[in-house]
Specification:
Layout: H1 3-28, H2 45-61, H3 70-97
Length: 99
């Protein structure tokens, strides 16, 4: 196998792992990233994801990330943010097509 093939395989496996991780978390938390219950925070979804990333980075910088895979969590939040933007665009397109 070439180095390029091995690199492509490693990238593919890492992406698949994050995908499985995010889908599992989404199911476990009842789609809370895209549809939070907003008991206390009234911030929009993008802002809530940004706050979660800030919290992760803060714990990492302070050395308080014991037992967490902060890199994986941060990747997950970045992907969730991108996915949410697509989700919103799709919803808006669906609403426009129904007019």
């Amino acid at each position: 196998m070439t180095k390029n093939h091995l690199a492509r395989q490693a990238i593919s496996e890492a992406c698949d792992e994050i995908k499985v991780f995010l889908l599992h978390k989404n199911d476990a938390y009842g789609n809370a990233a895209f549809d939070p219950i907003r008991c206390f925070s009234k911030a929009d979804t993008i802002e809530q994801i940004d706050v979660r990333m800030d919290d992760k980075i803060s714990r990492l910088m302070r050395g308080e990330a014991a037992g967490e895979d902060v890199e994986k969590d941060l990747l997950g939040y970045l992907i969730l943010k991108q996915a949410y933007k697509r989700y919103i665009n799709t919803q808006e397109e669906d609403e426009l097509s129904q007019l």
